[in-house]
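To the wet lab folks,

You asked to see what we're planning to order before we commit. Fair enough. Below is the target structure as tokens, and below that is the sequence we designed to fit it. If anything looks off to you, flag it before the synthesis order goes out.
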């Protein structure tokens, strides 16, 4: 069907070749874009955590030990979750 004579014999209209529009578009590296986005999200989360960690140190002086222990357990769970994500 690619030969022009066959197309004429079968009555198939000729379609002019169009320049490849996809070749002019820059290719997007999805992996690097995703990696960069995740890295930005992590740094933003770490910055917000470090900013919010400073005031909690002042508050921990007057909090009961049970609240401090609960906070420690929560932070340990967060660290374990981050370590699991790094292995993947």
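Sequence we intend to order:
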């Amino acid at each position: 069907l690619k030969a022009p004579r066959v197309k004429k014999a079968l009555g198939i209209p000729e379609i002019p070749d169009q320049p490849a529009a996809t070749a002019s578009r820059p290719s997007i590296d999805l992996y690097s874009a995703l990696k960069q986005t995740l890295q930005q999200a992590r740094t933003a989360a770490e910055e917000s955590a470090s900013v919010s960690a400073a005031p909690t140190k002042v508050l921990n002086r007057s909090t009961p030990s049970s609240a401090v222990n609960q906070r420690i357990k929560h932070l340990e769970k967060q660290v374990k979750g981050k370590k699991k994500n790094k292995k993947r």
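Structural context that might help your review: The two ends are 49 Å apart (CA to CA). The chain has a mean pLDDT of 72.

Thanks,
Computational group
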